[in-house]
């Protein structure tokens, strides 16, 4: 069946849903700092044109201390003479950063529901009704639309395939990722256009009942400029009694850009610092895995989070383990989900060599390398032998070609598929790591630091003896 057919069938499905005539009203909050004129105006007009006026209480623009000339008087005049009175503008007197700018927007808003948008979006047809309907049904549901891509060169709107979309995940390094909707959730939600639970959200575009936004702790106002607030809100909402859902019938386009068109005062790594605040507050002991990737942040000056911890106690939020077990069960926990983990070393002869990703890009398949063992457990040398026999890193698993040409073959890291097969390994008492399908052994052979690691025929050689730092108790 062609994707065009699917696309139309989802559209029809969405259009045939009944939305109540008395839905809560919405304040749409659009924050910006030095946004270009046309995307900002496009965002505003798409909301005006595509939201039923009876539900659109207001649009609150928050100017986070822009200095682009056209965002000054020209914008004031445009709002005064060209836009309806429901469009309001709040000008911040100093740079707040996106977190505190959104907080200002929320304070000013009076609608029943807050809908936050970035300043380079296009709301699509029928985008608002499904959000308001779901919040009417469940006031503690925090909602995200499907975010379509607007090309950052042509500004063209790419309407995604109707049925297929992804939800939010995270990496232990504290970054947002897109992940597939797991099978259990596909069953649970019933319809492909039903509210779909998402472990995390991208952050810029979401809807939340106004009072619930404040009840559940709004934002951490100790976070600066950009980054980390989306995972903070995701973990907070889930563990403190709410839900986070993608609403497939609501679609909003967003210009994804590869750079930030604004400054970071003091050149701070605000994403890292904000994420450390998040990890300290919400991740319990699992913050250890974040610090494997960001050891320097452990002692960085991310400030005081005692107020946020009090909030967490006051709301009696559940543990991060509960979140992992119940909301994101497919997330691989580097140590807990493993029979062995840590550096994977061959240490019979000097120098000790360890598995090391050699800083290779882990988004696409790559060969696993070897490097002199570090004297601490760095993320580049962190390996796990998972409970289902994967020799892996966070998302990439070791495999070797099943056609075996020569005596040795390189070890390829590919996305983990969870179906054993070519990604299954086991450990022997002598420290051999054997690839099950081919029956070959990991071999240091004659390799040196910076070389790729290989497998070869199993022998009793010391070059085939590997040791992990840690082994799970049997
Ligand atoms: N923003 C802001 N103040 C800042 C940084 C960002 O008001 O200090 C606004 C920005 O104009 C945008 C939104 O916050 O509307 C999200 O930022 P951005 O789009 O750069 O984040 P991305 O979508 O790239 O993650
Ligand atoms: Mn954006």
From TrEMBL:
Membrane-protein topology: Single-pass type II membrane protein
Molecular function as annotated in GO: carbohydrate binding; metal ion binding; polypeptide N-acetylgalactosaminyltransferase activity
Ricin B lectin domain location: 342-469
Functional pathway: Protein modification; protein glycosylation
Keywords: Disulfide bond, Glycosyltransferase, Golgi apparatus, Lectin, Manganese, Membrane, Metal-binding, Signal-anchor, Transferase, Transmembrane, Transmembrane helix
InterPro entries: GalNAc-T, Glyco_trans_2-like, Nucleotide-diphossugar_trans, Ricin_B-like_lectins, Ricin_B_lectin
SMART domains recorded: RICIN (SM00458)
Required cofactor names: Mn(2+)
A single Gene Ontology CC term: Golgi membrane
One of the Pfam families matching this protein, by short name: Ricin_B_lectin
Keyword Hydrolase: no
Localization of this protein: Golgi apparatus membrane
Biological processes, Gene Ontology terms: protein O-linked glycosylation
PROSITE patterns attached to this UniProt entry: RICIN_B_LECTIN
Known EC number: 2.4.1.-
Family to which the UniProt record says this protein belongs: Belongs to the glycosyltransferase 2 family. GalNAc-T subfamily.
Name listed for the protein in its UniProt record: Polypeptide N-acetylgalactosaminyltransferase
